[in-house]
Amino acid sequence: MDRKQHWETVYETKNPDQVSWTQKRPSTSLDFISSFGADKNAKIIDIGGGDSNLVDHLLEEGYQNITVLDISAKAIEKAQMRLGARAKQVNWIVSDVIEFIPTEKYDIWHDRAAFHFLTSPNDISKYAAIVAENEVKNMIIATFSEKGPLKCSGLEISQYSEKSILQHLSAQFELIDFKTEDHITPFDTTQNFLYCSFKRKMGL
Q: 45 partner at 20 to 30 Å CA-CA among 2, 100, 109, 139?
């Protein structure tokens, strides 16, 4: 089964309370986004957003230029159904992130739990190149930490420290802040996440 089919199957067969990554309120992501001090017209993209609740809260906070990208059309369909009429305020993109060709430049790139599914050096390099070529200004990437799980949704993942994740991005970005957080899944297990925020280096 290829990557896209895997995620289509997940979202076709499971509800939010049956997947480990569900958060009622993605507080840490929202705090990191707020920390950039961007105005409400900032172009924000949520990578692997699926049917995450982040977009709901961004809309509630008044952000007006939101894009959600996910490899699964079913995940996006679920999010659109949940949002109802508000879904029209969001730009939705169905794409594998490493095949994504942006048509606009983003002020904030947010990725919670997509990057760590890229386990081959080639895929990681493609991801970094897309971010670099897009001239993303600010970025948040959240992955399983070195104390986190080794698998998710039956797939191998890559664990990270703030130093190891920066190695893939240091040519273009500088690390601003990081924190680890225990995420309690809907089935009361604990996953340790690492959140990192980055700013594009001056002159690049």
A: 2
HSE (side-chain half, CA atoms, 13 Å) at 194: 22
Where do the H-state alpha helices sit in 14-161?
27-35, 54-60, 73-83, 121-133
Surface-to-core class of residue 154, CB atoms within 10 Å of its CB (0-12 exposed, 13-18 middle, 19+ buried): exposed
How far is 156 from 1, CA to CA, in rounded Å?
Answer: 14
DSSP string, 55-79: HHHHHHTT---EEEEES-HHHHHHH
Mean pLDDT in residue range 173-187 = 91
Q: Angle CA(83)–CA(189)–CA(58) in degrees, nearest 5?
A: 25
Q: Give yes or no for a contact between 196 and 141, defined as CB atoms under 8 angstroms apart.
A: yes
Superfamily grouping for domain 3-8+25-200: Vaccinia Virus protein VP39 (3.40.50.150)
Domain limits of the chain? 3-8+25-200
Question: Given this model, what pLDDT does residue 149 score?
Answer: 85
- The percentage of residues in the chain with a pLDDT greater than 90, rounded to a whole number, is 73
Other C-beta atoms within 10 Å of 94: how many?
A: 15
Q: How confident is the model at residue 172 (pLDDT cuts 50, 70, 90)?
A: confident
pTM above 0.85, yes or no: yes
